[in-house]
Design brief:
- It is a single chain.
- This protein is mostly helical.
- It has one domain (1-97).
- It is 31% helix and 0% strand.
- The two termini are 24 Å apart.
Length: 97
């Protein structure tokens, strides 16, 4: 989070930024079931993902939403809810509220 007025010319309020993060981005119209399965596969195979590249070891179940600054797809939201993740309100898509 970059607080408002940190930089000259910063146009609007606080800014949420990403860093070296991991995020799949899919179109909103992609099947909820497919996105649910994709999200589950990622978290169920985290050990294999960690082995594939050192930078991916930053992906942790304890901090799944670091750097995520767009609402979740409804299929991903369903997975995270079922798996018991604490989901920040800012990531819940308007159609799921």
């Amino acid at each position: 989070m970059i607080p408002a007025n940190t930089y000259p010319g910063q146009l609007s309020g606080d800014v949420i930024t990403g860093g070296a993060t991991f995020m799949f981005v899919v179109r909103k119209s992609l099947s909820d079931d497919l996105v649910h399965k994709m999200t589950k596969l990622i978290w169920d195979n985290l050990d294999e993902i960690h082995k594939s590249a050192a930078v991916l070891k930053q992906i942790k179940k304890e901090t799944p939403f670091i750097g995520v600054n767009t609402p979740l797809h409804k299929g991903a939201l369903r997975y995270y809810r079922e798996a018991g993740f604490k989901i920040p309100d800012r990531l819940i898509p308007p159609e799921a509220k």
